[in-house]
Write the structure tokens for this entry.
Amino acid sequence: MSSTRTTARRRTALAAVAAVTVLTVTATACGPDEAPDSDAKPAASEAADSGSNDLGLPKDLPFSLDDLKRWKEGEWDNWEPEGWLGDAKDFINPIIEDLWDRERMKDAEEPEREVDEEEIDGTPDGDGEGATEDEGATDPEPAVVEAADVPTPYTDGAAPYGKVFMDTPQGQMVCSATVVKDPANPGKSDLVATAGHCVHGGEGKGWFRNVVFVPGFNHKGLPAEQLETAPEEDVLPHGIWWAGEAATTEHWRSAGAERGGAGAQQDFAVLKVSPEEGGSETSLEETVGSAVAVNFSLPQVSTLPELTVRGYPAAPPFDGSSMFSCTGAAGRLTIDAEQPTMYRVGCTMTGGSSGGGWVAPGPDGEDQLYSVTSIGPLTATWLAGPRLGPEAKAVFDSLSS
């Protein structure tokens, strides 16, 4: 498990930088895929160290004006320890107001997480070596469940769900996510659950940049062609929330792959967010009106009721504008017998639904989150997600405070 903290979130400084450098908001995002192995922290710029700048930048700001310009323009060419922003394994995500406008959101693409049949291991009998009857088991492929439109407005019946946008070396990407309860802050959670591959590149790579959460995106279900001109409250009903902290499992960081099933068994991440506009003490949970408790008990598949999967699929035949769901019986899927068996359900949702929550009613009748979408096949007939156990709980606990 790894967790890092944003070292500076200075709204006034960033606004001043934007005004002076007249930056554009369109990223071209190109450059090397790999991050350095160094664990060194990024050094502060000379201007920040000395305090000698004309904009009143704080002394602890860990980057210069040129750094910020390259960040905002999406430059990844100098992703080096000696270059801009230092070690890519540090999650540094300062708020840049108005970066994620609706045109930029529209251009975000879905990550590719298709798995090939030859990557699937195990049989319905399992390997006989796991802690439960599920370990090492793979059930027959589930019946196909057609993704259904989530009733609008999402702010009523699907309040905790939304979209995650981020800049990656391949360009702007989009995932799905869920507002989850924080036991340390009852009723006032700022935590969001998503997939590890939505915030970190996996083995040999680093954290993504400009990571934001948009709860209730397009809550009226407007057609994609209307989203750029629709009133803001129809598309961004609760505004944009920036990730100030992020954590994912060590297994995803060390074994995760851009495509296929590697690392999928622990493909889980948590974000701690705050509103772009600021000036309010109201939490994310209070703002959207709901959050989902996370279940880390690794329940056996045979004890689970039907699971409901929600997300914003963006690959054809979907376009990412609307929320969909699938409800079906949980099955078992093994990619790596040394890792916990995954949940699998029949579902036709495609890329973009990654990170979306898998929920079922708990003992009290309230929904609990059991997984998040990680992988699916090229045929888009099923989805699979990690079973959330001790590793996922450690990730969650690192941001619950």
